[in-house]
Amino acid sequence: xxxxxxxxxxxxxxxxxxxxxxxxxxxxxxxxxxxxxxxxxxxxxxxxxxxxxxxxxxxxxxxxxxxxxxxxxxxxxxxxxxxxxxxxxxxxxxxxxxxxxxxxxxxxxxxxxxxxxxxxxxxxxxxxxxxxxxxxxxxxxxxxxxxxxxxxxxxxxxxxxxxxxxxxxxxxxxxxxxxxxxxxxxxxxxxxxxxxxxxxxxxxxxxxxxxxxxxxxxxxxxxxxxxxxxxxxxxxxxxxxxxxxxxxxxxxxxxxxxxxxxxxxxxxxxxxxxxxxxxxxxxxxxxxxxxxxxxxxxxxxxxxxxxxxxxxxxxxxxxxxxxxxxxxxxxxxxxxxxxxxxxxxxxxxxxxxxxxxxxxxxxxxxxxxxxxxxxxxxxxxxxxxxxxxxxxxxxxxxxxxxxxxxxxxxxxxxxxxxxxxxxxxxxxx
Length: 429
Fold this sequence. Notes:
Blueprint lengths: L1 E7 L2 E7 L4 E4 L11 H10 L7 H4 L6 E6 L8 H14 L7 E6 L8 H15 L2 E3 L8 E6 L5 E5 H5 L2 E7 L2 E2 L3 E2 L13 H8 L24 H11 L5 E7 L5 E7 L3 H14 E4 L5 E5 L9 H11 L8 E5 L9 H8 L4 H10 L3 H15 L1 E5 L13 E3 L2 H12 L5 E4 L6 E4 L2
Parallel strand pairs: 3-19, 4-5, 4-9, 5-6, 9-12, 14-20, 15-16, 15-19, 16-17, 17-18
Antiparallel strand pairs: 1-2, 7-8, 10-11, 12-13
Helix pairs in contact: 1-3, 3-4, 9-12, 10-12, 11-12
């Protein structure tokens, strides 16, 4: 038998499976960073990709908008890298009063003063305030053009009034756009609600009834219309400079890329792919995956990342066991609404096309997984919360394994994914 433990909530779960069944453990590559978070950031700024240094692109008297993610992305640890950007701007003669921090909230809520201070860190928050983007405030938007995909691009007026836009953020896999980061600071970051929804709707197939656009998935740029649309929208404002962090397995900044907003972003995506993309030789009969414990499994909405990655390691009809404590429940009412109020994927697709939201799309896609895979959840959530969803809810991993073995036999090729929220299996071509 193969015996091990995996993270679940704030603890660990021990388990055993027949060793002959184990195909292997799908986990991130521990790439070695060049130094501390501060050293990584400084190195990126001093060695920009496809661009002069930021300080060479700005002049005294010019205004600079620094686009920074909101508190829902505090895992980026922006308070580490933002002081280095301000330092370089000041050294080039840009005054504090000519720097605007604009939080790219997208469709998220406005933030508190305490949350703004968290973003900037203790020193910068004494010198600067943060302005929240408000996607529904049409008076704050400017129409800058329409993409070839039909998205009317309305962006934050305050950003466009500045001489320069500096985009910041972090690059990780994104289940719709391929990778997060880069252009995401502009769309959805500082775009109008209508622009964001039009862009995100490209994750659906153009033909109603055909479901998802399968090119809009983690780790893929090719024919990914949502990504290509975001790139066109960002090109309309052509940010002067970009800095994006890349988190390591410990959550700290392990890598950073800076420079041209396109070239640096694509280089960052390559680093993420090398670190978190795992080539597998074959699909498994069974995948056992966990998000990696708290806080990645704090609710079901966050668990979607693990679900979407795990399904890449098993074929349609294969079995998936996802461990996620979800102590805070669904985490989003629209996800529950999509799963429990509609009987199948066809009806869910009609609803998400009727009124697209990201949360509805998440619920729709999880429903698609539940219909096409043999899907089990080990969770603290009560089974009643999943009635009618097609997801089998159990309390323990042993219980889930017993159910799978009774249904399909014990001779099942198995992949383990101990950090499923971050790790993307990629079938060898």
